[in-house]
Amino acid sequence: MTAAADPPGSIPVRIGIDVGGTFTKGVALDPEGRMLAVSHVPTTHGHEHGVANGVLQALRALLRDLPPTAVPVLIAHSTTQATNALLEGDTALVGILALGEVRDERRIRKVTRPPMGLRALQAFVATDRPGFEERVQTVLKDWRSRKVGAVAVSQAFGVDDPRFERRAGELAREAGLPVSLGSDLSGAYGLEMRTLSATVNASILPTMVRTAEHVRRAVGELLPDVPLLIVRGDGGAADLRAFEEMPLHTVVSGPAASLSGAILTHGVMDGVFFEVGGTSTNIGVIKDGRPALKYMTVMDVPTGLRAADIRIAGVAGGSLVRLRGRRIEDVGPRSAHIAGLPYASFVSPDRLAHARVERLAPRPGDPADYAVLQTPDGSRFAITPTCAANALGAIPEGASASAVPESARLALGLLGQALGAGMEAAAHAVLEASAEKLMGTVQALVREYGLRGTPLYGGGGAASVLGPVVARRLNAPFIPIPHSDVISSIGAALAVIRVERERSVTRQDPAVADLLEREVGEEAVRLGADPASLRIDLEYRAREGRLLAVAIGAHPLSTHTRLLDADELWQQARQVLGDQAQPVFGSPHHMLFVAARGRRGLLRRGEQHAALVLDRRGVRLLRFENAQVLTGPPHEVLERLCVRLAKRAIAPHVVALTTSRVRDYAHLHDPALLLQQLAENLQLEDQVALIVER
Questions:
Q1: 599: how many CB neighbours lie within 10 A of its CB?
Q2: 483-524 pLDDT, tens digit each
Q3: pTM of the full predicted structure?
Q4: Which of 385, 356, 359 is nearest to 370 (CA)?
């Protein structure tokens, strides 16, 4: 099946594949987001083509189960490959090429030293001396003879003028070496940070290029004409070539895909999101309908890249119980998967006959305090939180963590004997000890992001094991996400294109903002975003001296996924703003709603107007608690805004909606500059809407 020639009555299908540490999972979704097929295969780490073989197996399984009228139109996958390469030391020898003026050589060499944990060589080439290209070529020739696998190029003040950096990159590519440029990874000042980011990125380039090529070939065998995307760590997606150029963007790709799945398929707006696997639990945050992002630190190296703020805890559904005397000392970090043991609750009760609790070390060097069940024939079985939850009847029927209740009760009864307690007490103790390891992380995220009272959402195959226990202890509601075991694959299938760039600035400059906005928009389109779906947000961070631009768009085929009609969008708006919500401006890509609300003051009552912008999938783009909305032809709207800004020294936060774009002007605080920028940007529009924060 291919997307080249769609027969009449065909069903366009989006495929998402998540390459996890244990399983590679795939889903196929129809245009309404309904699941048509699911596949689970073991991740093929040991295959000569690596994880690409598992991707191929998962894809084949999906295609076998699809109806004859199904036509795949897009494949997107998330992966742990970049993370694993860094953790496992599968890195190349990197050549760090530092550029700058001769007078700064000593300082530049000092701040471009290789990071700890990576193998690297370093060279300095002056940009203000004749023969620049010849000297770079000499360095590259030497590095090739010393088996350098990739090059990181970083130029002092390359943010402002990256000409030499880019030329050095071209020469390295001509020499057959993969290249990572510091200015491509970050537009912020700080030569050390840009160099470290480029070096870490370069260290995994050869491995990622091989992986990408294997994946491309594997998918091309079955679906040669279908677009192939990869999910980034910020929840967006890009063409597979981005994986080959900047694999560092895909760190935490899998958890980010899960957050995207929860947002795009289930409309999650605010809350802590659990993804409970077999060995570890990923905990992230959804705020205002978007993944919460932060600057990544990789191998203790600060980078200039932002990704989903994911906290990882070494406890999950398959963690092993640890004993000290007659009490539970800990749960995890070793799991049944790592120890190579089956869960006691997933085998038939007769296989546990005459079993007893033994203690062992799962791996050489581990403490010998992990509790397992051993039968007279020498078979061993793991006692896990999943077993405990099944023993208590806490797992809903049909959930992926649902096991054999009798076997679970038998296993926890034996553990209870070792503890001097009953079966139920032992099961509760296992779950409480597991939840305790998550509580501090969750509470820190709740405080940091102001999420007190919001729900905890559960994803992953073991979401129903630990999520409810943590939620109860936090006195918060727990909401399991449907299809939680494949939510990352669903998120990959629905992934959007996202490009983020920033520049160090000393003042507000509309020309710089325009240039940066154009840059991220063009990059998003280059990576496959539909120009009509593009939305660009600008944010000026005065304290940090940075201007941030984020472009978000859908792949052309994804613009037809889960679109809501006007009535459905209105219903979504009423859920957020209340029954008073009314539509005031719409386009093929987004809709603006307002709602009047009473406000009680100290001496008198007042009224404020909330504003909400939803895209056509119902995802919240912007929300204002109190704002004035101006609609009409641009010249009329700007005249009314001019009156509003009269005698004001500082401009309010303004957002402009046109038929094709959402433009955020939060970075402009000068009223004159704001009006000038609006006039230039809106002059070709027929109708616009301005949201002016009160």
A1: 11
A2: 888 898 998 888 777 777 878 777 777 778 888 888 888 888
A3: 0.73
A4: 359
